[in-house]
């Protein structure tokens, strides 16, 4: 048996049904009204589905919630046994059912209707009871499931998921939801870290690393050993610089014994790379990578207030 062919057939079938679904979506004249309602009223979207449709609904709800639309998933059985109290009158109810006749879904309709909620359905049968009781319909009907016996939800669940993505992204666009908004809702993620964190969040204090510009070479070595950061700083009127342990080694190679007659001001790298304390992650990363450096001084009002290590930022 050619298992790879069976897998490829799934792709071909589902892609074919997605293309069919695209044609159906293009003829949906009420889609714009739906997105306008969900983006302008700021109502909550309560997503309800049973079985495989419930799993798809959970993902749709999570996508909506993470992109600025208040949403939660409600299991229809739990709803029928007390959780209907979670539904407010202003909420919009998104119901998922391939057949449109799912018992657990239909028995919620009397409450939803009497409560005055708007209903959106992602449904595989546009002539079903659910479709006939919906204010807006997203047609998820397919001609063929991708499974060998044409029964297991495959093409239909994929199309439902994509329609949920279409709705989510359309609402995002309508609300002008931007990267900063996404980062605010994902502070623990990589994008949130890049957009929300500032230099101050990675700041290493440098009070113990600041030395006088007139300090002798041997005292510079001693101060560097004591500081524990492999560098010292000079921050005086007229003199601002950095001395790393690498600078000391290179200075010794060049000057030999004469190094001990030099002072900190003679050794330091003047005007080292620095950023403002409010600099973003992306700005710091750009300097670390572009300048091939491992340390950035952090300044506020022209004074050094700390430093940031690339190892802390880009770990």
How would you portray this structure in words?
With 315 residues, this protein is of the alpha/beta class. It contains 15 helices and twelve strands. The strands form three sheets. It has a five-stranded parallel β-sheet with strand order 2-1-3-4-5. Helix 14 links the parallel strand 10 and strand 11. Helix 1 packs across helix 8.
% residues in beta strands: 15-25%
What is the molecular shape? elongated
Give, in order, the helices and strands: HHEHEHEHHEHEHHHEHEEHHEEHEEH
Characterize the biggest β-sheet: 5 strands, parallel
Tell me the domain tally. Answer: 2
The fourth-level CATH homologous superfamily of the largest domain is Glucose-6-phosphate isomerase like protein, domain 1
State the low-pLDDT regions, or none.
Answer: none
Structural class: alpha/beta
* CATH architecture annotation name of the largest domain: 3-Layer(aba) Sandwich
CATH fold label of the largest domain: Rossmann fold
Overall pLDDT: 87
List keywords for this structure.
single chain, 315 residues, alpha/beta, Rossmann fold, CBS-domain, four-stranded mixed beta sheet, 15 helices, 46% helix, 18% strand
In short:
By secondary structure, the chain is of the alpha/beta class.
SSE map:
Elements: H1 3-26, H2 31-40, E1 45-49, H3 52-66, E2 71-74, H4 76-80, E3 92-97, H5 103-106, H6 109-115, E4 118-123, H7 129-132, E5 136-139, H8 155-174, H9 179-185, H10 190-196, E6 210-211, H11 217-227, E7 231-236, E8 239-244, H12 245-255, H13 264-267, E9 269-270, E10 274-276, H14 281-291, E11 295-300, E12 303-309, H15 310-313
Parallel strand pairs: 1-2, 1-3, 3-4, 4-5, 6-7, 10-11
Antiparallel strand pairs: 7-8, 8-9, 11-12
């Amino acid at each position: 048996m050619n298992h790879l062919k069976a897998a490829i057939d799934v792709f071909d079938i589902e892609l074919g049904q997605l293309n069919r679904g695209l044609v159906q979506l293009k003829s949906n004249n009420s889609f714009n009204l739906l997105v306008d309602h969900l983006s302008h009223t700021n109502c909550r979207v309560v997503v309800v589905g049973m079985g495989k449709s419930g799993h798809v609904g959970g993902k749709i709800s999570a996508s909506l919630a993470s992109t600025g639309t208040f949403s939660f998933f409600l299991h229809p059985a739990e709803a029928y046994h007390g959780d209907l109290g979670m539904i407010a009158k202003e909420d919009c109810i998104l119901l998922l059912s391939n057949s449109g006749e799912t018992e657990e879904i239909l028995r919620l309709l009397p409450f939803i209707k009497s409560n005055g909620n708007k209903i959106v359905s992602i449904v595989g049968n546009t002539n079903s009871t659910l479709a006939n009781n919906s204010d807006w319909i997203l047609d998820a009907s397919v001609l063929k499931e991708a499974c060998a016996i044409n029964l297991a939800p495959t093409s239909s669940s994929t199309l439902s998921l994509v329609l949920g993505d279409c709705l989510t992204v359309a609402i995002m666009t309508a609300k002008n939801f931007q990267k900063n908004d996404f980062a605010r809702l994902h502070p623990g993620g990589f994008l949130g870290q890049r957009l929300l964190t500032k230099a101050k969040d990675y700041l290493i204090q440098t009070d113990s690393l600041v030395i006088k510009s007139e300090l002798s070479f041997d005292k510079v070595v001693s101060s560097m050993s004591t500081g524990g950061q492999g560098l010292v700083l000079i921050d005086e009127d007229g003199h601002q610089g950095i001395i790393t342990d690498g600078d000391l080694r290179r200075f010794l190679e060049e000057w030999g014994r004469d190094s001990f007659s030099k002072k900190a001001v003679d050794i330091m790298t003047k005007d080292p790379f620095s950023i403002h304390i409010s600099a973003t992650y992306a700005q710091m990363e750009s300097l670390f990578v572009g300048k091939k450096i491992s340390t950035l001084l952090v300044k506020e009002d022209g004074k050094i207030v700390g430093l940031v290590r690339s190892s802390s930022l880009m770990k």
